[in-house]
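hi! just following up on the protien thing from before. the input was this:
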Amino acid sequence: MGLLHYNGKGVEISPSKAIDWTVFAARRGDGYAAINLSVFLSEGRVVTRDYKEALKWAYIAQRNPQTEAMAVSYIEMMSKQNSPKEREHAKKLAEEFQFLPVSKE
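and the predicted 3d structure came back as:
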């Protein structure tokens, strides 16, 4: 849903809905949403650019087997934008991150 609102595919273009749906899905374990959130953050799309937060979401996406390989390339790319201390902190935050349950409502 996040990318649909970002691109206006079948729904209105809405940056705020794009980020809301992307965060919603990423926080519930959707690896593709975590990658998209990482891209939004690293490129400053829809949200303020934040390389460390982008790296954290790439590490979180790496935990999903479906997006693990894609996440590794994003991690390599975004690691260049962060100091060693920032990389370590982002990785620690990702390891401590707890997914939210998927609601059936």
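Helices lie at 2-7, 15-26, 31-43, 51-62, 68-79, 84-96.
The chain has a mean pLDDT of 92.
cheers
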